[in-house]
Structure formats: C-alpha cells, structure tokens
C-alpha cells in the first residue's frame, strides 16, 4: 500500500469499526510479523502463496469467530 502499512490501515478502520476482523496476506515470514507484535485480537495472517481453499477457510474462520461485542 503506498504511503501506509496494512497494519496502519487496519488500525484506522478499527477506529470506526472495533469488531472488524482482519486477514493480512503477506510474503514475509509469519514469525517476523508475530515477533513484531503486528497481530492484535481479531487479526490473522496467511502466507503467500496459498491455495484458494486455505484462503476460503481463513475467511470463514474469521467470519465465524465471535467478536468482543457478541
């Protein structure tokens, strides 16, 4: 994303929609993301490349996970 990181965009969106679930897609090693504290509750990450059925499963899991306000 030009001029903003994915995490900054997610945080800005969550200001207005606190229960927004976020699925990051990245080619960076997942360990780096987790170690740097990028993921907050309601966030997940999928590592590129990924099969479409894995993407579908992650989206379904995000949609099926109760939010803090449920």
Task: Characterise this structure.
The chain is an alpha+beta fold. The protein has helices at residues 6-16, 30-35, 52-64; strands at 22-26, 43-47. It has a two-stranded parallel sheet with strand order 1-2. The longest helix has 13 residues, at 52-64.
Give a short overview:
With 70 residues, this protein is α+β, with helices and mostly antiparallel strands. Helices cover 43% and strands 14% of the residues.
Give a quick set of tags describing it.
two-stranded parallel sheet; 70 residues; globular; alpha+beta; 3 helices
Radius of gyration: 13 Å
Strand ordering within the main sheet:
1-2
Provide mean pLDDT, rounded. 86
Helical percentage: 40-55%
Say how many strands there are: 2
Distance between the termini: 31 Å
Overall 3D geometry?
Answer: globular
SSE series: HEHEH
Structural class: alpha+beta
Number of helices: 3
Main beta sheet strand tally, sense and closure: 2 strands, parallel
Low-confidence residue ranges: none
Q: What proportion of the residues form beta strands (DSSP E)?
A: 5-15%
Write the layout of secondary structure elements.
Layout: H1 6-16, E1 22-26, H2 30-35, E2 43-47, H3 52-64
Parallel strand pairs: 1-2
């Amino acid at each position: 994303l030009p001029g903003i990181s994915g995490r900054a965009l997610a945080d800005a969106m969550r200001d207005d929609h606190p229960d927004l679930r976020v699925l990051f897609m990245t080619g960076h090693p997942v360990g780096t993301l987790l170690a740097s504290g990028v993921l907050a509750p309601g966030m997940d990450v999928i590592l590129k490349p990924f099969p479409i059925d894995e993407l579908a499963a992650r989206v379904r899991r995000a949609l099926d996970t109760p939010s803090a306000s449920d």
